[in-house]
Design a protein that fits this description.
The protein is an alpha/beta fold. About 35% of the residues lie in helices and about 25% in strands. Strands 6-5-4-1-3-2-7 form a 7-stranded mixed beta sheet, with helices on both faces.
């Protein structure tokens, strides 16, 4: 099917609390995986642009870091990136994990994670009120409970006079995404395409490769993995046979975490490397030779260059 020629193009920022499902939503709207997705909170560290076309509109999706109460420099930088990413967008979508709200309405006992999620949501709502700029609301993860339970929430959020339209969706199974796509497309201004029709993301390959490896580490290590970890692509070389050699450093804040990442006999880092290599081969369409090594840098969260590499502000 031949796509419509692009007559409108612009930016749509997706904001929300950590673990609301922003990355999953961006990937679903684009149609392929471009953003790190794990079961953990706060996995996106910088704004990733995904590109999708709906009708005659090209929508550049900004997947922002989760907005939360920030104390550390890295956290403050990520929150600043989230609000900055949405400031000039043509459309803003506030994504809310509806499950904690449904649980509270039902009088259920909330987990600490659910309480934090509600607090983050309420903080974002207050900020949107102060900015006096309408946004779309997308109530996510509605596949987890009966839809009749969402009706009181729709009434509650409608009464806030913050949202111009409310959507009930599931990023995971695609429920309700077409109306949301159309609403975003309608917000895009008249413009030629901003990106090539075959491009699905605006993210440097070396950064994408590092994010893929970081995702595999988080999935492999679960609760043991500290969040103060980064992966840096230090070398990217196209070999004569067309394959790619990638060298990456897994940078830890504490020496005590090194054994955890390596695993017994190096089994953990080998499994992570294999999973990341397979993902990279599939995305790049060619053979990839991936070499990982682990190093400790106790000061990395305070090094300015670590922030500029990822488009984050240091002085916040």
């Amino acid at each position: 099917m031949t796509p419509h020629p692009v007559k409108r193009a612009g930016f749509a920022a997706i904001i929300g609390a950590p673990n609301a499902g922003k990355s999953t939503l961006v990937n679903a709207l684009v149609g392929e995986k471009i953003s790190i997705v794990t079961h953990k909170v706060q996995t996106t560290r910088f704004s990733i642009r995904g590109i999708c076309q709906h009708g005659d509109a090209q929508i550049i999706l900004i997947d922002t870091p989760g907005i939360f109460s920030a104390k550390r420099r890295l956290d403050r930088s990520m929150v600043k990136a989230a609000w900055s990413g949405s400031a000039d967008a043509d459309a803003r979508i506030h994504l809310i994990d509806a499950a904690p709200w449904v649980a509270r309405e039902a009088g259920e006992r909330l987990t600490p994670a659910q309480k934090h999620s509600l607090e983050d949501d309420e903080r974002i709502i207050e900020s949107l009120k102060l900015q006096k700029r309408a946004a779309f609301l997308a109530l996510n993860k509605v596949d987890l409970f009966s839809h009749r339970l969402i009706l009181p929430l729709i009434e509650k959020f409608s009464a806030l006079d913050v949202y111009e339209e409310i959507f009930v969706i599931s990023s995971l199974n695609g429920e309700g995404l077409d109306p949301l796509r159309q609403a975003m497309a309608d917000k895009m201004p008249a413009s030629q395409a901003l990106y090539d029709k075959d491009q699905t993301a605006d993210i440097p390959l070396m950064v994408m490769a590092a994010e893929i490896t970081r995702e595999k580490l988080m999935l492999r290590l679960h609760q043991e993995l500290p969040y103060k970890l980064m992966v840096e692509t230090e070398n990217w070389e196209t070999l004569k046979n067309g394959s790619i050699r990638i060298d990456q450093a897994v940078i830890l804040e504490r020496a005590s975490h090194k054994a955890m990442v390596l695993g017994k006999g190096g089994q953990t880092i080998k499994a992570v490397s294999q999973a990341a290599r397979e993902d990279l081969c599939a995305r790049l369409g060619r053979k990839v030779h991936l070499f990982l090594f682990v190093k400790v840098d106790e000061k990395w969260p305070e090094r300015r260059e670590r922030y500029t590499d990822f488009g984050l502000e240091f002085d916040v």
